[in-house]
Amino acid sequence: MRLTSLSATKLSTLIKKKEIKAEEIVLAYLEKIKESEKDLAAFITILEERALASAKSIDQKREKGKLAGVPVAVKDNILTKGIRTTCASKMLENYVPPYSATVVNKLEKEDAIIIGKTNLDEFGMGSSTENSAFFPTRNPWDLKRVPGGSSGGSAAAVAGGEAAASLGSDTGGSVRQPAAFCGVVGLKPTYSRVSRYGLVAFASSLDQIGPLTRTVEDNALLTQIIAGQDSQDSTVSSQPVPDYREEMQRELSSLKAAYLKNMVLEGIDPEVKETYYRTLSVLEEEGAELREMDFPSWEYALACYYLIAPSEASSNLARYDGVRYSFRHPRYSNLKEMYLNTRSEGFGQEVKRRILLGTFALSSGYYDAYYLKAAQARKLICQEFEKAFEKVDFILTPTTPEPAFLIGEKEDPVAMYLSDIFTVTANLAGIPALTIPAGLSQNNLPIGIQIMANFFQETCIFKLAFLLEKKVKFGNNELN
Amino acid sequence: MNPKIDLDHICTLANLKLTREDKKLLESQMIKIIKWVNKLEELEFDIFKGELDASVSLSLPFREDKIKPSLPTEEALASSPEKSEGFIKVPKVIEEK
């Protein structure tokens, strides 16, 4: 039995049955991290001592939580009290937060063990984890390739056996795209489902925290734990959180799913397309009622996203000016110069590009032509989803237009932005979306399929994903 | 047609300073991105500004106005680069005449 390839659910069951100790699990994972980190570089901070201490105290406990002894990796833009949280930026290289994010507290309350903080594209801005100020992370399936981004470290850690599950954040696909590239399950929950207290803000109308896991069941369990009201975040919905893990075992009462017109799929990788159609036919065999649908507004989704997200980012990142958060440029003669030097030195190229783009879109004389236009396009996208969900329960798409690309392959920012073509719409509309590994390319690279549903329909998404997981052959554990 | 971007002005608004090389590169990349997002111009809208609300409608939640302990000053300021006697220190803002 290889501990580093078991699911989180399985690990916590073993602990509860007293067949294994949390300390043994943590030691096995730390050993695996030692062995793989030189190749993967998934972690910015590894919490060896802290994880071992937590494991020992969990082993002493009589009543154990739902995630007892499960090593979880946390994206390094989610605050962990007393543990450096860098956002993979020089700006926050030495920032030690004075409190933990609600999601971290919730995981630890269920006796999960935070094993480390994972690498990302600086402040979540990117689709490859190459934009980290420290180092790029590599894809465990092929070390020459990117793990996706921005939660690339979280995806690589789970796929590479360095953590049993992880948390990421998703603003335009940052959980789902790396999950697809690394062959794991990733969810962006409904906007407002999960507390963002302690998530470093990138684009506040789009950001959501979501889990990356080896199985659908694990994903349901983690979502259940992190979701729900929080007195520290007024943007969280008061809707009760269902027992996703229990509910997903029940059959779907209705399986009407929309698929994309062939025309929309022009230009995407043929193997991705093939996997998409194969998954659709599996669903059909399961009695799904499939219908082709057209989403004309999606053509504008990326342009809309790349105006709204940078606009919000330019405002959110204004707080990094050398006053409050760890980094201040050593040379300045007045306040203005301190701001300028700190920000120019502290931010990387992609972050600067997005701040400038957002500042431009919001600036006087351009606001109506850019930001307002994007907000209108967003409304159009929302309306299209609304109409679609009157007719179907799900919308299925590929998660990404191609499998993991090579490190350094996409130097042109626009080419990189195109990676998010299928994922940004769910963020713009606020609906939940999950990616599930559905096949391997001839090069042995994972291919993901995305399931989208209406607001707060996570239960239905898990049900369908659970069904697909059983039917679609995907050798996830072969990697380990 | 290339969109006109006054990068110096945008940099001033964003509190960023670019090297000459970065400026050249970022300017060309931004022009490319702006041209790309200009695709939105094709869309015809009859949506009023007032209708552009958030994607998920939420009512403003209230909680009891109870005093709870907050973060101690020392902890709250721990990560700021320069501090003194419970305050953050910044360069002088008001000049003497």
Q: Can you characterise this structure?
A:
The complex is a heterodimer of chains A (480) and B (97). Chain A has 480 residues and is α/β, with parallel strands linked by helices. Chain A has 16 helices and 11 strands. Chain A folds into 2 domains: 3-254 and 393-479, Amidase signature (AS) enzymes (Alpha-Beta Complex); 299-374, no CATH class. In chain A, 39% of the residues lie in helices and 13% in strands. Chain A has an 11-stranded mixed β-sheet with strand order 1-3-2-4-6-5-10-11-9-7-8, sandwiched between helices. In chain A, strand 7, helix 9 (270-285) and strand 8 form a beta-alpha-beta unit. In chain A, helix 5 (152-159) packs parallel to helix 6, helix 7 packs antiparallel against helix 16 and helix 10 packs across helix 12. The radius of gyration of chain A is 21 Å and the shape is globular. The mean pLDDT of chain A is 95. In chain B, strands 1-2 form a two-stranded antiparallel sheet. The radius of gyration of chain B is 23 Å and the shape is flat. Chains A and B meet through helix 10, helix 11, helix 12, helix 13 and helix 14 of A and helix 1 and helix 2 of B.
